[in-house]
Amino acid sequence: MEKLKLLLFGVLLSSCLCDGLKILTVFPVPSPSHGILGDNMVKHLLNGGHEVTYITPFKNKNPHPKLHTIDVSANMKLFDPNMLDVKKIMDGDKYMQDNALLFVLMNSIASSTLGNPNVQKMLKDPNTKFDVIIGEFMFSDLYSALPAVLQCPFIWFSTIEAHSMILNQVHGPLNPAYTADYLVARVPPFSFYGRVHELWTLLVGLYHHNFDYHAKEVSDYETLIAPIAREQGKPVPDFNVLKYNASLLLGNTHVAISNAVPLPPCYKHIGGYHIDEEVKPLPEDLQKIMDSAKHGVIYFSMGSNLKSKDLPDELKQGLLKVFGALKQTVIWKFEENLPNTPKNVQIVQWAPQQSILAHKNLVLFVTHGGLLSITEAVHFGVPLIAIPVFADQYLNANRIEKKGFAIKVDLSRTMDQDLKVALHEVLGNKKYAETAKALSIAYHDRPQKPKDALNFWVEHVVRTRGAPHLRSVAVDIPLYQRVYLDLLALILIALVVLLVVIKKILGLLTSKKSVKQKKN
Ligand SMILES: *[C@@H]1O[C@H](CO)[C@@H](O)[C@H](O)[C@H]1NC(C)=O
């Protein structure tokens, strides 16, 4: 009888897998690079035969019979376009590298997403059913509350390198002696001060995550999610239980690009899945320019966040002068045409970045150091100059410089001169291109393409009903036990007791002595 049941269950399961899974993906951050990651993940899941519901702030460009989008474009107004003040950053203001600013912003996005009428409607609909949820982790744990209503396993997706604030939910923080806070951006090995500072930063982060930020999430859970579960007669678990109950953590990383640090079994690298498998042909004019560049091509793009209006005019002219003195052709992605552009500099408003990086004549990529751009550079084996602007870009830049295939240049009003030095170094020293090629080989040499790993692990979670076998045992052990604070306390108490006893004995001895002396 049991066997029959098991067989029946197996048949049912495989038949439901043949039809594909019903997957909810939550990518609510209204920033273009997050949109790229969301769109491509959805594309691969659809190609894997699954039915996908996609919570996104962006208009959907590629309709598909098995794709349903839930519009949270209302999140757009939470992103102040003037928040990123490049001139301020150029003058050394580190206001964007502030954890509190980031948390408040990401928390407002999370509550705005779950409170969005379109999302609430989906949650309240009794016919809504999913096999699994994938939620983007951007410094809010709130999405892990969704299983209270949807009653299915939950998977985190982390867009940046593995860091303690997300690993804490599925395993425990990384060792701060060799893993930097992503905003502090140190590269190991650290100095003594560095290690102490990293420990302090971690403790402060954990404190916020477990107390004040956590309290805000609990109250959002109580107002946005718990009432729906109650209404539908479902149990309402404590948010603290849901927060530590994710089945898997997918990382937009690959160890060839990040640091080799010990990660729990539920962490799976899928970095590079956003890169097209087939390189799209270049537009005719760019193809011609790149084909005929005898001395190679340098591609310069500062991503989607830094706008040309942000750069001071002297700097624009300074950059043109530096580029004009090179023998290489420079393709500069910039939204405005500049006067006095030298012959070897081509300004383009739009550029197919992956196709440019794939061209055999490309010799160098000058970038802001976003993780997507760096992953693409490693994919195509191209050396880099990174000019970080905000968020994890400093960490990325420092790390790839240390790995030996890039140079970091600080964003400043006079960075044209620093860039000149860096250009000559990377172009004149073969080490950079060779390291980039070697890392590219390591990056491609894996058992599974990232998109296949994505589909496999998502299906694995459903096949194994939430993959409890991957759950790190550390999650259920309090931090003080993991780092033996209880033992330390015991030793301290024993020492104190010992000291007291010794003092007492000494006291007795001396008082006896004095009694004896008196007698004499
Ligand atoms: C935790 O996740 C597992 C696997 O998805 C699930 O079976 C269990 O019900 C979840 N626990 C709670 C309290 O939701």
Automatic annotation (TrEMBL):
<dbReference type="InterPro" id="IPR035595">
    <property type="entry name" value="UDP_glycos_trans_CS"/>
</dbReference>
<dbReference type="GO" id="GO:0015020">
    <property type="term" value="F:glucuronosyltransferase activity"/>
</dbReference>
<feature type="transmembrane region" description="Helical">
    <location>
        <begin position="487"/>
        <end position="509"/>
    </location>
</feature>
<keyword id="KW-1133">Transmembrane helix</keyword>
<comment type="similarity">
    <text>Belongs to the UDP-glycosyltransferase family.</text>
</comment>
<dbReference type="Pfam" id="PF00201">
    <property type="entry name" value="UDPGT"/>
</dbReference>
<protein>
    <recommendedName>
        <fullName>UDP-glucuronosyltransferase</fullName>
        <ecNumber>2.4.1.17</ecNumber>
    </recommendedName>
</protein>
<dbReference type="GO" id="GO:0016020">
    <property type="term" value="C:membrane"/>
</dbReference>
<dbReference type="InterPro" id="IPR050271">
    <property type="entry name" value="UDP-glycosyltransferase"/>
</dbReference>
<keyword id="KW-0812">Transmembrane</keyword>
<keyword id="KW-0472">Membrane</keyword>
<keyword id="KW-0808">Transferase</keyword>
<feature type="signal peptide">
    <location>
        <begin position="1"/>
        <end position="18"/>
    </location>
</feature>
<dbReference type="InterPro" id="IPR002213">
    <property type="entry name" value="UDP_glucos_trans"/>
</dbReference>
<keyword id="KW-0328">Glycosyltransferase</keyword>
<keyword id="KW-0732">Signal</keyword>
